[in-house]
Write a structure and sequence with these properties.
heterodimer, A: mainly beta, 10 strands, B: mainly beta, four-stranded antiparallel sheet, 0% helix
Amino acid sequence: SQQGEEDPQALSIQEGENATMNCSYKTSINNLQWYRQNSGRGLVHLILIRSNEREKHSGRLRVTLDTSKKSSSLLITASRAADTASYFCAPQGAQKLVFGQGTRLTINP
Amino acid sequence: EAGVAQSPRYKIIEKRQSVAFWCNPISGHATLYWYQQILGQGPKLLIQFQNNGVVDDSQLPKDRFSAERLKGVDSTLKIQPAKLEDSAVYLCASSLGQGADQYFGPGTRLLVL
């Protein structure tokens, strides 16, 4: 299916460390998007990477995409307590985003 | 720029009752989405509108769920009658067009007792 599957399901690290989350999908896509969701709130769009791109940066975020392996990764560098949230990848085909179950990231002070 | 607005933020009802949620998308956004997010899971698309027409409602339980976007701006999502398994957060999102970045509202948290 087009649904993204995040790995790991949960990740706990110390503040200042880097966090890496992975996403795998099964069908061809036009782009892949990453979203963050803080507890009890809506989703916030983080970054979009197109199928012809391999890497993209936005502040402390670095996203890679390997269409041959149908996988993507999200790296958050120098993590902060405010990064504690759930992170979802959403591969996008023609029109629809299909979200996975997400990675629950906890940043410990 | 104002974001996507949703109301109410919270709703508690008993099973078999009816409930309605309202969404006001970002001005100028032609595409509007309703998602259901059950605790511990990612959002699942229920219905997608392009202006006032339905693009995709393949995952909408049509026996109890309905949605409309009559004037191509605001939208309402209704559940009638509600079941226990409908307890979830209902998220509304909008985008300039199909395939564009989606902007999410804060969601409506529904608890069915």
